[in-house]
């Protein structure tokens, strides 16, 4: 739509109201389940049955203390932190070296490796549960955090490699060529040139793999039987009886599990965004 101002025709910008409406609806869709979870964490089972979606009429803050104690979070939180840190470290090393080799070294067979990684990322890893369990039993890796970390490396490294490779392909080669002229080795180029330029990509795969390791339940339940080694996701089993579940404590446990992840993401979000617009790619 246009109007005439001073003899010149000017174009009126369309209203942005529909965009804000869509954004508000998407925000409500994303935040709504978390709000309901927070409401239910402050209710008794009887009140959840009567009022499953509304705010609590008589908040029961003792649910958090009971959930922490009954779920053994003092132990499972530490175990999950170890699993997450080990997974993130291993995935960043494996994916970083593999992505650099495929994006920069022009090795033969790169296309075949990429196809293999695509297939590996698409296949459900539960297909390999039985042979993997027998293999891990023979290697004495069951019921150990390190054995579970190795499984997480295999689960998250293919997708992390593909994601990081796509980031490295977009980097200019001028910095590497200058480093090679100065006599730098490929490992030195990776650590001193590529890593500072691509750390937002590494941060992305660290967040994705870390969140996956923190939330993983199936392999943790299968390969860890010792209560002192179980991760945080298995704490939900403590609120289940033979014929019922305490949904108030379960909701409180969900809040306890979510809060560290949300806090970590909010702490790293600004650095992640600033890293995308800084460094050698600027200008």
TrEMBL record:
Bilayer-crossing regions: 17-39, 81-101, 113-139, 145-168, 189-214, 247-268
GO BP annotations listed: transmembrane transport
InterPro entries associated with the record: MetI-like, MetI-like_sf
Keyword entries, A-Z: Cell membrane, Membrane, Transmembrane, Transmembrane helix, Transport
Keyword Transmembrane helix (UniProt): yes
Primary localization: membrane
Compartment(s): Cell membrane
Organism expressing this protein natively: Rubrobacter tropicus
Domain ABC transmembrane type-1 per the UniProt entry, residue ranges: 77-268
PROSITE patterns: ABC_TM1
Name of this chain's protein: ABC transporter permease subunit
Homology family: Belongs to the binding-protein-dependent transport system permease family.
Membrane topology designation: Multi-pass membrane protein
Any single GO CC term annotated in Swiss-Prot or TrEMBL for this entry: plasma membrane
UniProt superkingdom: Bacteria
């Amino acid at each position: 739509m246009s109007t005439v101002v001073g003899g010149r025709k000017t174009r009126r910008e369309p209203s942005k109201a529909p965009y804000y409406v869509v954004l508000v609806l998407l925000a409500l869709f994303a935040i709504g389940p978390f709000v309901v979870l927070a409401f239910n964490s402050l209710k008794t089972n009887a009140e959840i049955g009567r009022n499953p979606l509304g705010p609590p009429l008589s908040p029961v803050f003792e649910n958090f203390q009971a959930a922490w104690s009954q779920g053994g979070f003092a132990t499972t939180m530490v175990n999950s932190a170890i699993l997450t840190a080990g997974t993130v470290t291993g995935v960043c090393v494996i994916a970083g070296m593999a992505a650099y080799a495929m994006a920069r070294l022009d090795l033969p067979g790169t296309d075949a490796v990429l196809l293999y990684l695509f297939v590996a990322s698409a296949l459900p890893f539960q297909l390999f549960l039985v042979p993997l369990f027998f293999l891990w039993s023979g290697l004495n890796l069951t019921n150990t955090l390190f054995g579970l970390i190795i499984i997480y490396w295999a689960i998250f490294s293919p997708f992390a490699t593909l994601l990081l490779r796509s980031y490295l392909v977009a980097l200019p080669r001028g910095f590497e060529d200058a480093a090679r002229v100065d006599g730098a080795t490929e490992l030195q180029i990776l650590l001193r040139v590529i890593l500072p330029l691509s750390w937002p990509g590494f941060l992305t795969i660290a967040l994705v793999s870390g969140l996956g390791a923190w939330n993983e339940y199936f392999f943790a339940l299968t390969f860890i039987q010792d209560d002192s080694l179980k991760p945080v996701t298995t704490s939900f089993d403590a609120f289940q009886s033979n014929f019922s579940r305490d949904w108030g404590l379960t909701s409180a446990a969900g809040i306890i599990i979510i809060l560290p992840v949300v806090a970590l993401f909010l702490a790293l979000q600004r650095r992640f965004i600033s890293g995308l617009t800084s460094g050698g790619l600027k200008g």
